[in-house]
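FW: tagging you since you asked about this chain on Friday. Here's the raw sequence from the shared folder, copied in full. Didn't touch anything.
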Amino acid sequence: MLGRICRCLLVITFSYECMGVVAAQPPTKDGRFAVEIRSANVTTPEYVTIPNSNTLAFNSLFYGRSLHRLENAKAGTDQPSLLKLDYKVEGDTVFITATVFYGDFDQQSSSVPFERLRRQTLATHSGRLNDSVAFPEMERAGLEPLALRIVTAQSDNPYLPLTRSDVPSVQIDYTPVDRTFGTVTLRNLSKKAVNAYKVGNSGETGSGVGIEEEKGGLCALIAPGSSYQARIGIPHSGRTVNETFIEDPQPQYLVLQSVLFADGSYEGDQRIAAEMAEREFGDHVQLVRIGRLARTILAEERLDDAAKIERIRNAIQQLSAQPDSEILAQFHAQFPAFSEDVLTKAESNISHAMKGESSSMDHLIEENEPILRQNRTILPLAQWWAAISECH
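HL: got it, structure written out here
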């Protein structure tokens, strides 16, 4: 979404998603340990790298399809909607605490943040390098126990793909970090700013690489002659044979497939570039409309901040996410480089981006609302809104 970096700095908590598990903080390079996680009926392991610093609240969340329930769990019984694993490193030991939460929870549009749900701490178990850590207590909560193992943060055989750029003006390099992430470095050799890019593996669109697309919004992501680094997830897949997991060969190539420049031009795959432009445009259109509504409400002196927050959220939720003919004409004028036959999903992608931006902004306000209510004199609503608006 537009302004993602600035928003993360202003949100009280934030998360990233990796292979169905959400971890509360990005991993650090100095982590010595990782937790290997195997879920019921899922042969592909997931890895969570744990930073050495105990000052960070570090955890994984399991919900939706990643929350595996026991087949014999009684229908209608009180069942958890979310499982949280908290990690802490003390010396050569990793401590893991499992907590379940009860109540309606939706990561994208939850009306009640999971921290406010009723909870039950199941147990804390620990292990050292190569130890397995079991949580039989999960069965009492109606969940399939996870298979956990303490491993080194760095793999003995790190993922080292070959890199290729299908974009003449931008180079790509890759550096391994741990079992979960590597770092891509993009070097912009052109005289134009890059607003968005997409990376895939083995030249295949829609591949399993963690970062598919990154967008800078109205502020350029990569200035002319500059470099940019980003974390990218390592693809893992495989199968179990005689109760032994055999990992598939990882993709040989990491490919920079396309970039979108700030002037509306592109290099690389035209269809991918058009889809990025459509989503970027939809983001921007909706943010402008939201900003216009918010400024009107913020100017109403008879309302206090609590009432203004409610009015802004209601306005966002009622805002249309369907681009009209005028919006579509603006898109074609802003991005004239794309042929009509490539823009087959323009209206759908723009609409999806507009809807997503509304949800994102509503969720951002929801997350920050308790702080804004408690610290009105420290961070007034108008000042907070002005700060996030600078991102756009």
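FW: The CA atoms of residues 156 and 179 lie 9 Å apart.
HL: agreed, and The chain has three domains: 15-152, 162-268, 270-389.
FW: great, closing this out.
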